[in-house]
């Protein structure tokens, strides 16, 4: 379903007593996000955002090796792929992925993956801004988010109007970590420390990118691990807060605002 419908469908499901898997982005606004989280807590519903890379063994491998880099100084991320709907958009035929009324755009469709990875690794930034290429109907077809942390800065780019190799690069004083491929798949990562040969890891057990998240969601539910649910809420809320503030600063208005 379109991004703008996530909130209402999830709210109805929680109210009906269901546990819920919500496609990214979790909602259109921070207010919607906070309402869903509050309803889930009140009902003790197991509500998950289907943010695939955060459930993958490769992500845990990056977390475990991150301290080897020493002080982090720079983070770069890019998720760019020419949308199959972009030619239609250029002809003024607007699909939901390019419609502000449907909470579309590069930030909420693609950059959300980059931001989820960065925020899951480093927490919420001290500040954020968004420099976007805005189309004829006010939607962002591509753009760059800049994030300021204590001691380093990060840039997070995404595009639906052009393509390039996608990656996440973390640069520390002792070396770097780079992921290979799009962040929603997180197929492998390479770590290179000063004075040592690069080492590449492919720790995911399954070829399909969604299997790990379903396995982990099943574990969380069976073990009644609501702490893990709360951990997911914390990342989701931080990502939505950063995206909404930056989006509004860039002048991108959704119908849900």
The beta-strand count equals 10
| Helix proportion | 25-40%
What is the CA-CA span between the terminal residues? 19 Å
What is the CATH fold-level name of the domain at 55-207? Dihydrodipicolinate Reductase, domain 2
CATH architecture of the domain at 55-207: 2-Layer Sandwich
Q: What is the mean pLDDT?
A: 98
Structural class: alpha+beta
Order of helices and strands: HEHEHEHHEEEEEEEHH
Total number of helices = 7
- For the largest beta sheet, what order do the strands appear in spatially? 4-5-6-3-7-8-9-10
CATH superfamily of the domain at 55-207: Dihydrodipicolinate Reductase, domain 2
Strand composition percent: 15-25%
CATH class of the domain at 55-207: Alpha Beta
Main sheet characteristics: 8 strands, mixed
The rounded Rg comes to 18 Å
Low-pLDDT residue spans: none
Kindly summarize this structure in a few lines.
Helices cover 35% and strands 24% of the residues. It is α+β, with helices and mostly antiparallel strands and 257 residues long.
Describe this structure in words.
- The protein has 257 residues and is of the alpha+beta class.
- The protein has a domain at 55-207: Dihydrodipicolinate Reductase, domain 2, CATH 3.30.360.10.
- It is built from 7 helices and 10 strands.
- It has helices at residues 6-15, 30-43, 57-65, 86-90, 106-122, 211-222, 226-249; strands spanning 20-22, 47-49, 72-80, 127-134, 140-149, 152-159, 167-172, 175-180, 188-193, 199-201.
- Strands 4-5-6-3-7-8-9-10 form an 8-stranded mixed beta sheet, with helices on one face. It has a two-stranded parallel ribbon with strand order 1-2.
- Helix 1 (6-15) runs parallel beside helix 2 (30-43) and helix 5 crosses helix 7 (226-249).
- The chain is globular, with a radius of gyration of 18 Å.
- The two termini are 19 Å apart.
């Amino acid at each position: 379903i379109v991004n703008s419908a996530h909130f209402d469908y999830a709210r109805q499901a929680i109210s009906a007593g269901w546990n819920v898997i919500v496609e990214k982005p979790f909602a259109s606004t921070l207010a919607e996000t906070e309402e869903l989280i509050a309803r889930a807590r009140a009902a003790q519903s197991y509500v998950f955002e289907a943010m695939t890379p955060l459930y993958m063994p490769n992500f845990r491998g990056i977390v475990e090796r991150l301290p080897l880099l020493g002080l982090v100084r720079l983070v770069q991320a890019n998720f760019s792929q020419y949308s199959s709907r972009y030619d239609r958009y250029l002809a003024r035929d607007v699909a939901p992925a390019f419609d502000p009324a449907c909470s579309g755009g590069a930030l909420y469709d693609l950059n959300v993956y980059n931001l989820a990875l960065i925020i899951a690794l480093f927490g919420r930034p001290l500040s954020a801004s968004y420099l976007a290429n805005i189309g004829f109907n006010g939607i962002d077809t591509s753009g760059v988010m800049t994030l300021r942390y204590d001691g380093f800065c990060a840039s997070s780019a995404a595009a639906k109007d052009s393509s390039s190799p996608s990656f996440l690069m973390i640069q520390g004083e002792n070396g770097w970590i780079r992921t290979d491929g799009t962040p929603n798949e997180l197929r492998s990562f390479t770590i290179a420390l000063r004075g040592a040969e690069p080492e590449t890891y492919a720790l995911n057990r399954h070829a399909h990118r969604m299997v790990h998240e379903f396995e982990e969601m099943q574990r969380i539910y069976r073990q009644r691990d609501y702490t893990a649910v709360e951990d997911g809420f914390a990342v989701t809320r931080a990502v939505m807060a950063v995206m909404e503030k930056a989006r509004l600063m860039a002048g991108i208005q959704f119908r849900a605002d």
